[in-house]
Amino acid sequence: MSEIELKFLLDELTSSQLGVRAKALKLVTGRPKTRTLKSIYLDTPDHALKKAGIALRLRRDGRRWIQTVKTKPELHGGLSQVGEVENPAPGGRLCLEAIPDAAVREEVVRRVNGAPLEFVCETVIRRSASELSLEDGTRAELAIDIGEIHAGGRSAELRELEIEIIEGSPGGLFDIAHLLFPEGGLRFSRLSKAARGYLLAEQGWIDPPLAPLNAEDVALDRAQIAEQAARDVLRECLDQVATNVVVIRELDDPEGPHQLRIGLRRLRSAFSVCASVLKSPEMTRLSMEARWFGQEVGRLRDIDMVANNIVRREAEAHADEPGLPPLADALSKQAGGLRDHLRKVLPDARVQAFLIDLARFVEARGWLVPQDFGQTERLAAPVVELAGMALSKRWKKVSKHARGLETLDVEQRHELRKQLKKLRYAVEFFSPLYPAKRAEPFLKQLKKLQAVFGDLNDAAVARAMLTGAEAPGAGDPAAQRAIGWVIGASQARAEFGWAGAKTLWGSLDETRPFWK
Fold it and tell me: Going by DSSP bridges, is the β-strand pair 154-167/2-9 parallel, antiparallel, or unpaired?
């Protein structure tokens, strides 16, 4: 059988309010049940089951012991989908031969290969569970899990919400999340309890240390159909966005806003390159929300960039300019105010609705349009057809905007920069489908050219920020000197790079498009 559930991490206040809210909304059917679950996870000494994506568990529920095998786990956007096979385990005794599914039994026995099965970790959870129902017929179990994970002589607390589908489609789980958390503040759970237990045993924590998340390669395969590839690309974008939302809420690292803005831009680019296949009004709406969100994040990212990447760089290189460090400090103070504002926006209802709806779109095939009778054929097209069409379209736009490169004005340069960025995202999405020796030279030349345009944009942002009505240092000669220094230095660096843009464009233009 397959277990499908939506998982969130909870704080103490939220977990105490959930049951009351569910009752007030008249979602609960029957009486809530509270029980203590003790689960023991076992594996071979070299963790052969974990390596195969298998979790072997003995659970005590009241007086009963149950043996469970979970296979093929997937957890994306909070939605967990896993194969599950259970059987009674009298006295809490493990018995692989009792696994009722023959294929699962054979796989477990083969992976164990006669090795001893050892204790890995234990969870002791107090579970409060209620059955919920929606008007459309969706039935689900709402489980609030509060307890501890024990492994390797260590323990860690865990508060988690699981909404498991009983009847209906997975999309109903996201509807329930909207109803239960209208004010915002939710955080997707990215790991199963078993995975957390292994981490505690091996590394001493149940969640990886929080850090800004960069874009990661998507392992696309030429055997995939277009829909599968689009899903995988969108999953990776969602992961980058959702993780960096948490980073900004909890850390002051300026890389967090940077990576969140990149994630939102990559998401909109993914929507664009997949539009020919998905063609969904919901995708258009989500893209507009991502644009709004990106603008909110962009203001903080811009001031962080000017303060740290430009002004502090000049201050370190020119210690004899006393106005530079105070200017950087003033900008950092302004950034602090923007960060405080963004931290109020991030847990808000609009951002949460965007994240939940995006997760639903990606994980519950939210692009399906019943009236679109040609959609099935488009979704089933080979991924290389989608990639070739998308990359050719992006390349054509870049080539068009690069005509007469040396004569482009400021606005035309800006537009070319945006088109180069979109091309780069598309190349990064689809390059795993092609031989590296063909894709990497093209991407290398593209990055070099994009860096030139990045310097131009940074110089323009610095100039606008330091000469506007809210620019720091008004009436302070030392600050005004520092501002002039920064604007001049950044502009000179940008123009120096621009002098070689024509050569870089020629090199890129001569590099054979790897998708043809």
Answer: antiparallel
Please indicate, yes or no, whether the overall pTM of this predicted structure exceeds 0.85.
Answer: yes
**Amino acid occupying residue 5:** E
The answer to whether residue 269 scores a pLDDT higher than 70 is yes
> In whole angstroms, what is the distance from residue 161 CA to residue 164 CA?
10
Helix, strand, or coil here: 195? helix
CA max distance for the chain:
83
pLDDT for the residue 13: 64
Q: How far is CA 293 from CA 135, 352, 353, 481, in A?
A: 32, 11, 12, 35
Q: By the 8 A CB rule, do 283 and 269 touch?
A: no
CA 53 from centre of chain:
22
Residue linked to tokens 């990776």: 236
Q: Please tell me the predicted confidence (pLDDT) of residue 15.
A: 67
pLDDT digits (tens, 9 = 90+) for 105-123: 999 999 999 999 999 999 9
Higher pLDDT, 46 or 330: 46
Give the Å distances, CA to CA, from 282 to 103, 170, 288, 433, 451. 40, 17, 10, 28, 34
Percent of the chain with pLDDT over 70: 98
The region that residue 366 occupies, defined by phi over 0 for left and psi between -120 and 50 for alpha, beta otherwise, is: alpha
Let me know: does 442 contact 513? Beta carbons within 8 Å.
yes
**CB-based burial label for 468 (10 Å; 0-12, 13-18, 19+):** exposed
Task: Compute how many other C-beta atoms are within 10 angstroms of the C-beta atom of residue 68.
Answer: 18
Q: How far apart are CA 472 and CA 236, in angstroms?
A: 39
Token pair belonging to 309: 């990447």
pLDDT at 1 over 80: no
Q: How far apart are CA 45 and CA 115, in angstroms?
A: 8
Return mean pLDDT, the chain.
Answer: 92
Task: Let me know: does 274 contact 391? Beta carbons within 8 Å.
Answer: no
Phi, psi (deg, nearest 5) at residue 154: -115, 165
% of the chain exceeding 90 in pLDDT: 77
50 Cβ neighbours under 8 A, 6+ residues apart:
43, 198
